[in-house]
Amino acid sequence: MTVVCLPQGGCGAADGRDAAPVRLLRAAGVRVAAGSGSLRDVSNPVGRGDPLEAAYLLASCQGLTPEDAYAAVSTRARAAMGLPEVRVEAGFPADLLAVRGDGLPAALSLAYSRIVVHGGRVVARTSAVREYCDSAASGSGPGLPRQGRGPA
Question: Which residue numbers delimit the Amidohydrolase domain (predicted)?
Answer without folding.
Answer: 12-123
